[in-house]
Amino acid sequence: MPTIDHLATFPIQGAGLPPRLRALLSPIGLDPSERVEVTSDLEFDHHGPNAEFVHMLLAVVPESVDSPLPIFDEAGDGVVSYSVPVLGDKGSSQDFSLSISGYDYIVASWGDNSYYTYNLAEKVWMALGLTPRCLGNEQQRLVYDDLGVPEFAIAEGEVSREYFFNSSRNVTWRMSNAYLRKYLWMRGARGVRTFFYQAQLPNGPELRQLMNGNKHIDIKPDPAWYEIDIRENDGGLLLQVWASVDAVSCELCPEQSANNIAWPGVQGLVTHASADADIAGHIIHLDDQFLERYEKSGFYDTIPAFIYGQWSCSPSYRGQWSFTDCRRVGRNLIRASLRELYKPKPDQEILHAHSFALDPAVVAQFDPNEEHIVAKTQRLLAELLMLGDNLSQLGVVVGQNKSAEDLVGFSAGDIQANGWLHYPQLSRLAQVVPLTMSEQDFLARCKSLHEIWQKVPNGFLKRILEAAGCPKKEVGDRGTMKLLEALLNIAERLDIHDEDMHAFINTDEPENWKERNDKMAALFVANDLRIADAHDAFANALPRLQDLGFDTASLGQGYGRAFDFVMDGVIRAFANINGPLSRILAR
Fold it and tell me: How many domains does the chain have?
């Protein structure tokens, strides 16, 4: 079917053609990542000198229909359906069928001069198998996802607007170019923009030349695929355009394929077949930022698992596909075999992994034995489980029966049986920590670190300290960290004297129980950083990191090392408490 170059044949060219009007007249290319505007109701500077208005719909027109198409009636109102049918005799609307001058549409839009609503057309989302989700509050947007792949935000736009002298907000619906073209291809159709455009423009030589000395002109070609109205208005020129433009051809976007791509350290181009036959087992190393895409979405399972002495980090999607045998090596590396990377999954996921593949020369610069964030989180968990056991045993001695799970919020039995499955806070804490971590992410992670151990009940600790002889009034004013610090002071003194658990019960006030203990300093610094995140006071917390021995000059390269330092300090603090407590309880 022959088409015309609408932009080239439009009478207004050069500087006289406003950018938004140029975009409306221009066709869409084949870039699969482009977000195509499929409906818009826009108002800019409504009563100002640069006022601009756009009403645009995208019609689904069979490829067999010749171009150019006439201006559709719906272009003026900017909606598929205007008002509602008159309530007449029974069955008077039995032939009610919505269309854009007889053609289907991509976005269903309705208005009545006061209220306007928008949604993806039923035929579109059902043909493509899309699932909607609504963003509420002030946004009031609909987003459509393809959960089978998954691909997110295939189509999205505002749900509604109101009109009372001015529009309450601009409405724009955009759709993935790849999915839009897939739908048009299935329908054997092309996408035709039908729109109304209006702008208040300054006097310009291009428009004045077109007006040929007249104060008002109206231009229509034959056949009339556009109509242009230009008239003098408020010292400038008022431009109005109605048009129907072939915008999206009936042509699929080029598909992304994991076939015939080069992988670092592998000779020749790799295909699905060659990867499956790779018995030699080429090893691919990925930067662990490969995981961030999956960790930040609740749609994926990214729970680390300890398998055969190694930490596995293989993202999976709702039982439909999974990466396999992705193992952590060193701080920021993931090791996987080429064959496993190509195991059945969408090509886009293989290409995503490919974008993080590292050259063997780069991998050689990494320390494969450096501890990664998952191992640090497991060390923290081990100390918390030990603290729970120690506090539980100590509670029995002073008449406070509490289970370890009640005290620290983690069950050793559950973790032994199910790993981290029932403790999502552990997976969140163990998310990727790049060396280039931003300050905002660093502070947020410090907050998560602090919240992990905050389940220890203050009342329980206070009763233990009171049983040890600490004055009730002084104990009552202390928070969790100072209570743990006091417990450490008492435990260290008892441990030095080779005492057992029964020595905790005392009527005399313990010596030096209120003193500051440097072995707990990291917990207080982590708390300062948590507060910095909440109150934008990070500059005040930096000196505390320096006091612990961290070189803050290195923060110019990122905050990854700083988080390592804080987390190691917090783990040591709990180990410092567990050490004397365990020895006392074991005697």
Answer: 3
User: 149: which DSSP letter?
Assistant: T
What's the full length of the chain, in residues?
587
Rounded Cα gap, residues 106 and 108, in angstroms: 7
Q: What share of the chain is helix, strand, coil (3-state, %, to 5)?
A: 40, 25, 40
Q: What is the mean pLDDT of residues 111-116?
A: 92
In this structure, is residue 253 part of a structural domain?
no
Q: Look up tokens 């992670």; give the residue.
A: 445
Strand, coil or helix: 307:
strand
* Beta strand 115-120 pairing with 131-135: unpaired
- The whole-angstrom separation of Cα 176 and Cα 179 is 5
545/407 same-domain check: yes
Other C-beta atoms lying within 10 Å of the C-beta of residue 8: 8
In angstroms, rounded to a whole number, what is the distance separating the alpha carbons of residues 128 and 183?
A: 7
**Distant-in-sequence, close-in-space partners of 223: CB < 8 Å, separation ≥ 6:** 68, 70
Instruction: Tell whether 303 is covered by a domain.
Output: yes
Tell me: do 43 and 80 sit in the same domain: yes
Q: Which domain holds residue 456?
A: 373-586
Q: Which helix (H) or strand (E) holds 462?
A: helix 458-467
- State phi, psi for 350 to the nearest 5 degrees: -65, -40
Residue 263 lies in a domain: no
Q: What is the pLDDT of residues 204-242, one digit of tens each?
A: 888 888 998 899 999 999 999 999 999 998 888 999 999
- Tell whether 225 and 290 lie within a shared domain: no
Mean pLDDT, the chain, whole residue set: 92
The conformational region for residue 25 under phi > 0 = left, psi -120 to 50 = alpha, else beta, is alpha
- Name which of 43, 118, 34, 42 is nearest 80 in CA terms: 118
What is the pTM for the complete model shown? 0.82
CA–CA dist 148, 32 (Å, integer): 18
**Residue that finishes a domain, picked among 363, 390, 409:** 363
Looking at residue 288, what DSSP letter applies?
G
